[in-house]
UniProtKB/TrEMBL annotation:
GO terms for biological process: translation. Belongs to the universal ribosomal protein uL22 family. Part of the 50S ribosomal subunit. GO terms for cellular component: cytosolic large ribosomal subunit. GO terms for molecular function: rRNA binding; structural constituent of ribosome. It comes from Candidatus Ornithospirochaeta avicola. This is Large ribosomal subunit protein uL22. It comes from the Bacteria. HAMAP family: Ribosomal_uL22_B. SUPFAM superfamilies: Ribosomal protein L22. This protein binds specifically to 23S rRNA; its binding is stimulated by other ribosomal proteins, e.g., L4, L17, and L20. It is important during the early stages of 50S assembly. It makes multiple contacts with different domains of the 23S rRNA in the assembled 50S subunit and ribosome.
């Protein structure tokens, strides 16, 4: 079977921890485009809203680059959540002490492709 390249969208430096977004990404990996967007719309997590935006952008990229594509033939071929940089913040504690808070960021990559031969 011949591999096709797929259509990609990336969102970087999103202020949400990768560990909170990865379980959401696991739910839509391999699903049809329309089914994945319906799943994400029903979820209350912040990560679901962010992934939905990137998924919508990847779908738009696919339809703009290949006019013969139909939205019903698209599926989520790859989705991965990478760690972004971390911001270090100081959290004041009692007795003049402090702790370091790590504000974690994520990079979300979604690749949609055309499902052939169903």
């Amino acid at each position: 079977m011949m591999e096709t390249k797929g259509y990609k969208a990336i969102a970087k430096y999103l202020m949400v921890s990768p560990t909170k977004v990865r379980p959401v990404a696991d739910l839509i990996r391999g699903k049809k485009y329309s089914e994945a967007s319906a799943i994400l719309e029903a979820m209350p997590q912040k990560g679901a809203r962010l992934i939905a935006k990137v998924l919508k952008s990847a779908g738009a990229n696919a339809l703009n680059q290949n006019r013969r594509l139909d939205e019903d033939s698209l599926y989520v071929s790859q989705i991965f959540i990478d760690d972004g940089p971390r911001l270090k913040r100081v959290w004041a504690r009692s007795h003049g002490k402090r702790d370091i808070l790590l504000k974690r960021m994520s990079h979300i990559t979604v690749v949609v492709d055309e499902k052939v031969g169903e």
